[in-house]
Amino acid sequence: MAYSIDLSGRIAMVTGASSGLGAQFAQTLARAGAAVVLAGRRSERLKDLRARIEGEGGDAHVVALDVTQRHSIQAAVAHAETEMGSIDILVNNAGVSAPQRLLDVGEADFDFVMDTNLRGAFFMAQEVARRMIARAQGAAPGSFTGGRIVNIASVAGLRALAQIGTYGMSKAALIHMTRAMALEWGRFGINVNALCPGYIDTEMNHRHWQTEAGRQLIAGLPRRRLGQAQDLDALIVLLASDQSHFVNGAVISADDGMALG
To answer: Most buried residue among 117, 174, 212, 254 by CB atoms closer than 10 A?
Structure first.
């Protein structure tokens, strides 16, 4: 018997949607039937993605967002809900990294990573959750309430990795944040989970994997291979769906066993 997940009628907002995993998540959710809000700083890239989604018969809307600015978060969420309707699914994907040794990290480097990966993710989730909770408290009997928040963490938040210590710290904190949110917001029907990818080959890092340093990293992986963005498709759809109603506060690795080493 075939099994499928249908997100028709749901509104999903994806941050950092202009490229890489964010773009893949947005396309995947749209293919599953969700109307998708594409949020990020690179508007032209977002418009191109919207055209691709609409070309496949999907529904997408572009909204400008800088997660390091709280006023931008508030404006983006308000604009998204005015244009598309109440947000049911948030994929908190916007993230940055600044590879360097810990002794070389300056205040600006530290703030650059933490402001996006942790502070931005926190206030993004908070803004969406406020609206989800208000909807749950005032909803008519039988109407859809609650929601799904998926925080995109990393295997680097589960084990220490050289040269990306600050990034790893931000993702470890994001994992704890996920659990705290799940604990507080679960009673409102909001499920908050963390997805921890391993090394994924994307347009942003593709060149690195061709270098000697990149090849050495691949050689050190359990099965000596990189993941592809589409390897996360099934997980993101599941975590966004009603079928994940009993999954809350989970930290899910999708790393081909990398965190085991």
So the answer is: 117
Cα angle 71, 91, 32 (rounded to 5 degrees) comes to: 135
| 38 falls within a domain | yes
Is 3 part of any domain?
A: no
> Quick check: is 3 catalytic?
no
DSSP percent split of the chain into helix, strand, coil, nearest 5? 50, 15, 35
Q: DSSP string covering 69-95, please?
A: -HHHHHHHHHHHHHHH-S--EEEE---
- Residues of the domain holding 61: 11-255
Say how many domains are in the chain: 1
Q: Looking at 11, 49, 60, 167, which residue is catalytic?
A: 167
Q: What is the CATH number of the domain that holds 172?
A: 3.40.50.720
Relative to beta strand 251-254, strand 227-228 is unpaired
* pLDDT, tens digit only, all 261 positions of the chain: 678 899 999 999 999 999 999 999 999 999 999 999 999 999 999 999 999 999 999 999 999 999 999 999 999 999 999 999 999 999 999 999 989 999 999 999 999 999 999 999 999 999 999 999 999 888 656 556 689 999 999 999 999 998 999 999 999 999 999 999 999 999 999 999 999 999 999 887 888 888 998 899 889 889 999 999 999 999 999 999 999 999 999 999 999 999 887
Are the C-beta atoms of 148 and 244 separated by less than 8 Å? yes
